[in-house]
Amino acid sequence: MTSLPHRILRALDRFNATHPWDHNAHYHRWILRQLPRRFGSALDVGSGTGDLARLLATRADEVHGVDSDPVIVSRARRLTPEATAASFTVAEAPARLPAGPHDVITCVATLHHLPFTEALDAFRRHLAPGGTLIVVGLYRPQTATDHLLAATAIPLNAATGWLKNKGRSTAPPASMTARTRPADMPFSDITEAARTVLPGARLRRRLFWRYTLTWRRP
């Protein structure tokens, strides 16, 4: 017989599938709150359909979105009005990033696809003095705190999906069509490696299976 917890999880999975919402976009407004009201150049690594890049363009003189998927880059271009200060390029990170330097670099749900320390080192090199790096990433739950946050997020995830969809079943948003693979680094390893490359970086576990990293280049 299927255990009650397993049946509950399966029921929640079915509910979430019919009331989907973008966990990464949930943090976009938080990202904006970490940034100045105006800045020059921004780089969004793993820009997807361009939602965050278009938000950054409301404050930046220019925004460069890069993604390794040509199909999703093409979609981002179609979704972006011509007058918007955001452009999108097919590029493999971290080896082929726009030179910069950039006043802001963002990376949402992408870093776990990349060689971790090499990517952070590339971000540091492409960031202007005084510039801000913001990462919203995924980590592998390992500790009791991790699992407690994950358990707390399950009902909140369902409630958020219900509210965002006004109780209606709906298709996933365009920004969710590219699926991400699970993370393989636990938060403790992420923190240790990040602070080695970026001394003074601030990292914090977040709800919905995410963590945030912020760093300002001296």
Kindly state the number of beta strands: 7
Name the CATH superfamily assignment of one domain: Vaccinia Virus protein VP39
Task: Please state the structural category.
Answer: alpha/beta
The CATH architecture name of one domain reads 3-Layer(aba) Sandwich
Specify the helix fraction band: 25-40%
Low-confidence stretches: 1-5, 158-169
Trace the largest sheet across and list its strands. Answer: 3-2-1-4-5-7-6
Task: Calculate Rg over CA atoms.
Answer: 18 Å
Q: Count of helices?
A: 7
CATH third-level topology of one domain: Rossmann fold
N→C terminal distance: 58 Å
What multimeric state do the chains show?
A: single chain
Judging from the principal axes of the Cα atoms, what is the shape? globular
Q: Give the amount of beta strand, in percent.
A: 15-25%
CATH C-level of one domain: Alpha Beta
Outline the biggest β-sheet. Answer: 7 strands, mixed
Name a few traits of the molecule:
218 residues; alpha/beta; Rossmann fold; seven-stranded mixed β-sheet; 7 helices; 7 strands; globular; disordered N terminus
Protein architecture, described:
This protein is an alpha/beta fold. It has a domain at 37-139 and 182-216: 3-Layer(aba) Sandwich (Rossmann fold). Helices cover 37% and strands 23% of the residues. It contains seven helices and seven strands. It has a seven-stranded mixed sheet. The longest helix is centred in the C-terminal third of the chain and has 21 residues, at 144-164. The radius of gyration is 18 Å and the shape is globular. It starts with a helix and ends with a strand. 35% of the residues are buried.
